Amino acid sequence: MLIxxxxxxxxxxxxxxxxxxxxxVDTCDSGAQLLNHPRLPQARxxxxxxxxxxxxGFALLTELKRRNVSLPVILITAPLSREVEQRxxxxxVAGVLEKPLLEDVLVxxxxxxx
Length: 114
Prior knowledge:
Blueprint lengths: L1 E3 L3 H13 L5 E3 L2 H5 L10 E4 L7 H10 L6 E5 L4 H9 L4 E4 L4 H11 L1
């Protein structure tokens, strides 16, 4: 699975927690890095931050769709708004979670979509 978040502390904390739960995790600090990641074609799930500089989560989802990359996506954001939930649903996102994340909730959601 892949995590995309511009905040290094968030990336490291999520990677650590998910690996403790037995998941193989790679991280990216931007949408551009994800689009060039060698494991993107084999990824089984994507945890994606909504608010990132440059390419936000929805712009990245649009680019993934344009490239015919299809995988379950869990969008993470703070604060969570009704507009973001609606946009995520329209984009086919598997779930939206609000930061700060409770690790067990994220793990449950990942296991559900995988």
